[in-house]
Amino acid sequence: MAAYALTPPAQAHLDIVGTEEKFPVRRIYCIGKNYVAHIREMNADERDPPVIFMKPSDAIVKNGGEIPYPVLTNNFHYECELVVALKSGGYNIPEAEASRHIFGYAIGLDMTRRDHQAEALAKGLPWEITKAFDHSAPVGPITRAEECGILRSGHVRLKVNGEVRQDADISLMIWNVDEIIAKLSEQHRLMPGDIIMTGTPAGVGSVVTGDVLDCSMDGLQPMQVRIGPKAA
Asked: Is residue 228 within 8 Å of 69, Cβ to Cβ?
């Protein structure tokens, strides 16, 4: 058994509905530009393929948690979306076989430093500063695919302080879940424990300290998180 010079960090994990077992999170893959209405509100090109980026697994915030308002931003945005958890993977997964690799689903938030995203896009810079910061990946409990079925439709909804800000059906995604898994596996060897944030619909906006975000999707467990004071 390896002897570490430092105490290894705790394994990032998500709760699973109906059991005490935990889902270990390996990688967080994220898909951008996957709803036409969101592309239009961001003034992007509708013909472009989705953008693929990643977040660190320790950016996970679980249901009921608090997200410290991050440093280095004055324009902190929510993006509510369907999250897909994988039980298996590989390279070059055929689209027709993609759903066989799905463990389950959850609702999640791709939290974004929007001011830095605009700068990164303008200068062609990496997205880590805008997408991969601490506490940037709130994700709710996972519902197993055996319980909810393979999801092809269902409304993703976000409320901020009780007011609906986002509400769209996942059937409107430009690239559906099977296509996303197949495309990702062309570039990465997908593995058990990977999760995929599948993109956000229109209605993104800013939040401030004290705001309460309620996320839901038909057939899945809801998630609530609160925006806390500025990170020290």
From this structure: yes
Residue 175 in tokens: 């690239």
**Model confidence band, residue 150 (pLDDT cutoffs 50, 70, 90):** very high
Find the farthest-apart pair of alpha carbons in the chain and give their distance in angstroms, rounded: 53
Q: Are 173 and 81 in contact (CB under 8 A)?
A: no
Picking from 29, 83, 88, the residue whose alpha carbon sits closest to that of residue 56 is: 29
pLDDT at 43: 61
SS3 at position 85: strand
Contact criterion met (CB below 8 Å) for 161 and 211: yes
Residue 135, sorted as left (phi over 0), alpha (psi -120 to 50) or beta, turns out to be: left
Given a cut of 80, whether residue 184 has pLDDT beyond it is: yes
Q: Are 45 and 39 in contact (CB under 8 A)?
A: yes
The pLDDT of 178-196, averaged and rounded, is 97
Domain ranges, ordered by start, for the chain: 13-230
Under CATH, which number does the domain 13-230 receive? Answer: 3.90.850.10
pLDDT single digits (tens) 65-119: 999 999 999 999 999 999 999 999 999 999 999 999 999 999 999 999 999 888 8
Name the E strands within 110-211. Answer: 112-113, 137-138, 143-144, 155-160, 163-169, 195-197, 205-206
Tokens of 135: 């506490």
- Predicted local distance difference test score (pLDDT) of residue 39: 62
